[in-house]
Each structure stands twice: as structure tokens, then as C-alpha cells.
Design a protein that fits this description.
Blueprint (H helix, E strand, L loop, with lengths): L2 H29 L4 H25 L7 H27 L5 H28 L3 H26 L11 H21 L8 H31 L1
């Protein structure tokens, strides 16, 4: 088994395990009248709140004293909002409410979610003196959008294009967990031997590198498919 197959197998297994846990919640949402588009919208609003929290944190921060508590809570909100990103598809499937518009609406709001959350982080880092971190986050944002764009263009040419490692679920986990850890370390460790903001910046660097590599891999995958 090669590395790509190994990660795909583990990712599929984890996805099914999560669905097993959340399906009772999905059925409950369906019973009280939630539609897939409503769930998608709630997830987007959650990400919008998280971005606003990063922006507000930048106003609270003073030199040498970043608002770590707000950073940590922002990560928690992103993680919670990502749950709705998983719920909408299940609500559509289990509730027999699958629609072409719903699929498009979900994809569009997914892009908006990444734009606002990574944009909020970029704004925070820029306004608190972490210019290099802001540039890295901008590169992460570009890579994240291009991963999805290349797939959309490929599917428009009837090419299945799901190759690559750093897809949306991975990017969301890296972003949210790093923000939470940054907040926890910054709030609870006195005089740490390193700047806790490095946790968030390194996470952005990981996304920047692997998201852009994933976009490149998808371009090459499409090139091979079209040459055939």
C-alpha cells in the first residue's frame, strides 16, 4: 500500500466514524425542520464570527501581549462551525433533500468560510506586527482557494480530481487546532521559551506549502488526463 492509499483509507475511515457519531444529531435536525442550506448558512455565520473575533483580538492586543484568549476561542468557533459543514451533507442525504443548487451553495459558502477565517488571521497577524506570518497566511489562503478551483475546473472538463493531501477538512483541523493551542499556551504558560504565536504561524505555513502542492498535483493530474 502506497502513502496516498494509506492516507485515503484512514481519512475515509475517520469520516465514517464521525458520521456514525453525528447521525443521531442529523436526524434530530431534520425532525425540527432544518434544511441542508440552513445548516450550511449556520456554518458560514460561525466562520464569520470567528473572523470577527480575530479582528477584534487585533484591536485588544498590545506589543508583547497578544489577546491569546480571543485567539483560542476563535479556533474553537471555527471547529464548531466545521461541524455544520459536515452536517449539511448528511442532512441532505438522510433527509432525502439532495439538490444541485444545494451542492453549489455548499461549495460556494465553503470558499467564503476559508476566505473570511484565513483573512481574519492574516488581518490579526498584520496588525500585531507579525508581517511574515501575515504573508504566510495569505499564501495559505491562495493555496486553499486554488485547491478547490482546480477541482472545479477539472470537473467542468469531466475529470475526477480529488488527488492531494491538504483538502478542506485537513485545512480546517490544522487552522482551528493551532489557534486553540496558541490560545492555551499563551494564556497558561508564563514566560514561555518561544512565542506562542509561532504555533499559529507554523500551522499557516503547513497549509501554505501543502495546499499549493495539492493544487499543483491536481493541475498535473488534469494535464495527464487531458493528454490521454
Amino acid at each position: 500500500m502506497n502513502i496516498k492509499s494509506f492516507f485515503k483509507e484512514k481519512r475515509d475511515w475517520l469520516q465514517q466514524a464521525i458520521y456514525f457519531v453525528i447521525n443521531p444529531l442529523v436526524r434530530g435536525l431534520i425532525k425540527i425542520g432544518f434544511t441542508p442550506n440552513t445548516v450550511t448558512t449556520i456554518g458560514f455565520l460561525g466562520n464569520l464570527v470567528a473572523a470577527g473575533m480575530f479582528i477584534y483580538a487585533s484591536q485588544l492586543s498590545v506589543p508583547g501581549q497578544p489577546a491569546y484568549d480571543w485567539i483560542g476561542w476563535s479556533g474553537g468557533v471555527i471547529l464548531l462551525a466545521s461541524l455544520f459543514d459536515m452536517l449539511d451533507g448528511q442532512v441532505a442525504r438522510i433527509g432525502n433533500m439532495v439538490s444541485t443548487f444545494g451542492a453549489m451553495y455548499d461549495s460556494v459558502l465553503d470558499r467564503y468560510c476559508e476566505l473570511v477565517t484565513l483573512g481574519g488571521i492574516c488581518f490579526y497577524l498584520n496588525n500585531t506586527g507579525y508581517m511574515t506570518g501575515a504573508i504566510i497566511t495569505f499564501a495559505a489562503l491562495v493555496g486553499s482557494i486554488m485547491v478547490s478551483y482546480v477541482r472545479a475546473r477539472a470537473e467542468g472538463l469531466d475529470i475526477e480530481c480529488k488527488v492531494g493531501f491538504m483538502q478542506r477538512p485537513e485545512r480546517v483541523v490544522v487552522t482551528s487546532v493551532s489557534a486553540i493551542l496558541c490560545g492555551i499556551v499563551g494564556c497558561n504558560v508564563e514566560n514561555p521559551s518561544f512565542d506562542p504565536m509561532l504555533i499559529l504561524i507554523i500551522a499557516m505555513a503547513i497549509i501554505a506549502v501543502f495546499a499549493n502542492l495539492t493544487a499543483y498535483a491536481r493541475i498535473m493530474h488534469c494535464r495527464k488526463a487531458l493528454m490521454k
